[in-house]
Design brief:
It is built from 5 helices and 5 strands; from the N terminus they run βαβαβαβαβα. The chain has helices at 23-33, 46-55, 72-81, 99-107, 120-134; strands spanning 15-19, 39-43, 60-63, 90-94, 112-115.
Length: 136
Amino acid sequence: MKEVLNPEIDPKKVKILVVDDIPLNVLLVKKMLQPLGFETSEAEDGVVAMEKIEADKPDLILLDLMMPRMDGFEVLRRLRANEETKSIPVIILSALNSNDDVAKGISMGAEDYITKPIIMDRLQSSVIKQLNKLFE
């Protein structure tokens, strides 16, 4: 069954931060979310992501793990340790696909873990599911 966005949620008002050091991956994720009407912003590594999160708290974060300067696991650790950001839903998007990596991401507080290459229906369903939970 395909997830359906709660009709009370205006996709244009939802702030999604896409964090990935590969511009093509960011573009791909944005294209996958475009049909749903979501606006996205982006950060090219964990350091920039933390700055953007502090400046303008997103509703949802799509987070790569392997990045320079600060990896996704460290971003997730810092988000969950901070009272103001610990409840922001995080969906990990990563090429790391071992059971240990997935288990680590979930145990650190990610709501979902999607391995690359990303399947559009899987990404859209996960995003919709998290936003529906957030706005229940």
